[in-house]
Design brief:
Strand content: under 5%
Organism: Nocardioides ganghwensis
Strand order of the largest sheet: 1-2
Radius of gyration: 22 Å
Protein name: HNH endonuclease
Number of helices: 7
Structural class: mainly alpha
Largest sheet: 2 strands, antiparallel
Length: 142
């Protein structure tokens, strides 16, 4: 025997227009939040740009390039996360961001790579994303 779910306990039924307006507002808010995540990831990457490999090691060590040394084994290295023309990012910064975003290292590498490419290689598309004219998911496929 099948039963149907009871009708909602609300006394007023929302009009179709109100429901659609709420859905549109929710999607716009979702886009805004997705852009905030990208902007935060970009700021994190820019805060951890490495221009000097010695500085990336976390200490100025003469042995950073000597295989088997602690500096070579455990020192932080610059990572080429995105395409040509984008900055190198400190390796441990990716791990820290992955932890706070509660996602995998690989997903965070992809996120940082995409946002660095957007900001540095595709600035017009980045502007459209930030103005909410292009969804983040489409821009990340570009």
């Amino acid at each position: 025997m099948s039963t149907t779910a009871p009708a909602p306990a609300t006394s007023t039924r929302l009009s179709s227009r109100v429901v659609l307006d709420r859905a549109v507002a929710a999607m716009r808010a979702k886009r805004r939040v997705e852009v905030e995540v990208l902007e935060s990831a970009l700021a994190w990457a820019h805060a951890h740009v490495v221009t000097d490999e010695e500085v990336a090691a976390g200490w100025r060590s003469e042995t950073i390039h000597t295989p088997g040394t602690a500096a070579a084994l455990f020192g932080e290295r610059p990572l080429p996360i995105a395409g040509d023309g984008t900055p190198l990012v400190a390796e441990f910064a990716v791990i820290e961001l992955a932890a706070v975003l509660e996602q995998s290292h690989e997903a965070t590498l992809a996120l940082l790579g995409d946002v660095l490419d957007l900001a540095h290689r595709l600035p017009r598309l980045w502007t459209l994303v930030r103005s909410l004219d292009v969804p983040v998911r489409l821009a990340r496929e570009a």
